[in-house]
Amino acid sequence: MAGVQEVEVIQKVEMIQEVEVIVAHTERTTLRVGDVFLKVDGNQARAAREVEAMALVPVPTPEVLWRKPPVLALAAVSGTVLGRLGEPSVASAAAWGAAGAAIRTLHEAPLPPWPGPGLDKLSAELETECDWLLANEVLPADVVTRGRQVAEAALRPWKPAFVHGDLQITHVFVDGDRVTGIIDWSEAARGDALYDLATLTLGQPERVGDLLAGYGGDVDLDVIRGWWAHRSLVVIRWLTEHGFDPFLPGCEVDVLRSLI
């Protein structure tokens, strides 16, 4: 029969859970321990904004368990991601439609009190990154030049909406035809609603119709394509410097090539 100390040791061992590294780079690290996500962010203003954004938005978000800078603890959301960049989404048309309806709800919410990047900043960012891509011969000149021309369609005045700001396909969780959670709100701000729609469908052009069926309204597809090009061009340097590969099949470089 096990003694008291042996029982305590067994209980402690049973409580040990595997630590999974979700994202790790010089700006942020996200770990998963069981049903808890621990986000370590060196920018505390950004982390505070994420917490505030989740408290404001009228869509499902992770529960904030606690925050002790530089760590933010969030509960895992149920369901599975809508898809992954570089892979065809296996989610149903209804799931994509539900995502569109949730995004419409977000975009119609009262604006957050803080601004997002304006047209001048986004235009300057595009110019800087295109110059870097050309100077370092990262991509053929025709790909950069044509991609930049496509991106210009997105750089026009827009009516500000409450946007997620980084609505990657892995940031939306669904269960059947129901959205169960939208994660990673650190870039939430006032911005162009079509940027969110474009970010979610990056590399998934065949699902745009399903998304818009739930979102509703008239959407300029040239602007969507413009944001695909803009996002792909401006993130290539950051991705390569932080351990990601934009040249993987179906990812940013392939998206650019598909637009020219």
Automatic annotation (TrEMBL):
InterPro entries: AGP_Transferase (IPR051678), Aminoglycoside_PTrfase (IPR002575), Kinase-like_dom_sf (IPR011009). It holds the Pfam family APH. Residues 49-226 form the Aminoglycoside phosphotransferase domain. SUPFAM superfamilies: Protein kinase-like (PK-like). Gene3D superfamilies: 3.90.1200.10. PANTHER family: AMINOGLYCOSIDE PHOSPHOTRANSFERASE DOMAIN-CONTAINING PROTEIN-RELATED, AMINOGLYCOSIDE PHOSPHOTRANSFERASE-RELATED-RELATED. This is Aminoglycoside phosphotransferase family protein. It comes from Catenulispora pinistramenti.
